[in-house]
Amino acid sequence: MALSGLRVTQIVFVISNILFLIMGIAMLVVGAYLQITSSSYVSLLPSDDFFTASALLIASGIVVIVVCAIGFFGVWMQSQCIILIYMLCVLIILALSIAAGIIAYVFYGEIESELRNRLLEGLKDKEKRKSWDEIQQKERCCGVTNYKDWYGLVDPDYPSNLPDSCCDGPNCGSQGTTVAYDEGCYEKGKEWIQDNFYALGAAGITLGVLQVILVAVSCFLLVMMRREKKNFA
């Protein structure tokens, strides 16, 4: 028996909504993962901007999951009103996603310079010294731009002294620049931001395409439901 146009549209809608739901769950999981296992660079920043961003990702995932539930309920009830509400919600999410993408693209260059400035601020915070030691040992780098960023911060009486994490061996920091790592940690942090920026960009494009498909399928579903209703009238 051949499937009706409405039935086919409902199946396409459900499949698309399942993919949307998976994206929402992924956003929730990634946001939670970033909250729990953030990069060492995050702990060097003097603000909670990163955690605000990951919390926003978690909130977005929850919103997507709720909207998907509305879509499933609407197609199950075959309610034009609920499907319309669902479509409007997807349109709002799509508009916000486009706005966020444009803002991220426009201010991407400023994010890099802001990272440098904030790392320099974090360098002067003694409470973040342990985090600096961890990142410098792991990445084999020293300071933000280079080892000179540490001048006068470790021991005011001996300005050229560096943290021991800036070099190999115990108490090597007292030997100053002769044993220090040449590369600064800023470039390493910028690479980490770029990797995550591109990954989030790819995910955003995928989500945007899926949302456009969902809006189109929702419109077609509404048309088919109205046509079906007229046929039975």
From TrEMBL:
<comment type="similarity">
    <text>Belongs to the tetraspanin (TM4SF) family.</text>
</comment>
<dbReference type="InterPro" id="IPR008952">
    <property type="entry name" value="Tetraspanin_EC2_sf"/>
</dbReference>
<keyword id="KW-0472">Membrane</keyword>
<dbReference type="GO" id="GO:0005886">
    <property type="term" value="C:plasma membrane"/>
</dbReference>
<dbReference type="InterPro" id="IPR018499">
    <property type="entry name" value="Tetraspanin/Peripherin"/>
</dbReference>
<protein>
    <recommendedName>
        <fullName>Tetraspanin</fullName>
    </recommendedName>
</protein>
<feature type="transmembrane region" description="Helical">
    <location>
        <begin position="83"/>
        <end position="108"/>
    </location>
</feature>
<feature type="transmembrane region" description="Helical">
    <location>
        <begin position="54"/>
        <end position="76"/>
    </location>
</feature>
<keyword id="KW-1133">Transmembrane helix</keyword>
<keyword id="KW-0812">Transmembrane</keyword>
<feature type="transmembrane region" description="Helical">
    <location>
        <begin position="12"/>
        <end position="34"/>
    </location>
</feature>
<dbReference type="Pfam" id="PF00335">
    <property type="entry name" value="Tetraspanin"/>
</dbReference>
<dbReference type="InterPro" id="IPR000301">
    <property type="entry name" value="Tetraspanin_animals"/>
</dbReference>
<feature type="transmembrane region" description="Helical">
    <location>
        <begin position="197"/>
        <end position="223"/>
    </location>
</feature>
